[in-house]
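Notes from the 1:1 (GR / supervisor)

We went over the backlog. Supervisor wanted to see one worked example end to end before approving the batch request, so GR pasted a single chain during the call. The sequence is below; no edits were made to it. Supervisor asked that the structure be written out right there so they could see what the output format looks like.
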Amino acid sequence: MSTFANASTRPRGSLMADVFTNYAKTAALMAVLVALLALGGHALGGYQGMLMFGALGLLLNFVMYWFSDRIALMAHHAQEVGSTQAPALHAIVERLCRRAGLPMPRLYIIPSPSPNAFATGRNPQHAAVAVTEGLLEILDERQLAGVLAHELSHVRNRDVLIATVAAGVAGLISSVGYVLQWGAVLGGASRDDDDRGGGLAALAWIIVAPIVALLIQMAISRSREYAADATGAVLTGDPDALADALGTLERTKHAVPYQFAGPASAHLFIVNPLHGGLASVMNLLSTHPPIEERIGRLRAMRG
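Structure output shown during the call:
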């Protein structure tokens, strides 16, 4: 398996179709953001508000496309590390990138004892892989290679672009909804009867915005996780390593909760970092397939 193409479980034409689909979904998400912000602006300030919020949406799209990876890394307090700071991590990633024919991504460590990992970036040339301190401590080298191969598969398939943009869109829409909610609470008492129409529109936006933010995350297909599992397992030649790692990560996340977890970016991680009641609700709209199913598929790949 000298190249990633040989390690792939899908034909190149199918892979390119997936890449095109991911770019199309990204464009659709950006268009949705502009449209929803414009509608919210109209609810608040009529035609002028619609123009102002629509322009803001275009600006935010630009920022998200070019800087969403940095925003995601900052949100999780990730710190970039070099080969001297994390030699074992760099050695594994360099070996996998040579097999995959991928450029070396930037590597980050998240100061959290909860084991998890995610990849981000708009393309393979601007990719980053972040792992938690807990992941490095709890997994052996074989299992760690399985997790990193999974993340590099997301990079190659351009899954990271749409996943990171979706995180930004979901977070922004939720934030706008919360801002409008507080605005309605603070300014509701001073509204005149003539403003009731706009108030009702704003109320509808407040209710719908967080729901839409969750639905936008559903643009991230669960199949991307299955594909990254399979391709990463073939890349390492050891599907049991990733299966063992997934089982360990799923068990440990309940004992050691991830302190930076949030609904807007939960889909970025290899296992869902949410826990407690929020995790139960989010499972209904989760972009993560059941861990048991993922492990079963990996076990079935054994030769």
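Supervisor's comment: Strands lie at 79-80, 106-110, 117-120, 128-132.
Batch request approved.
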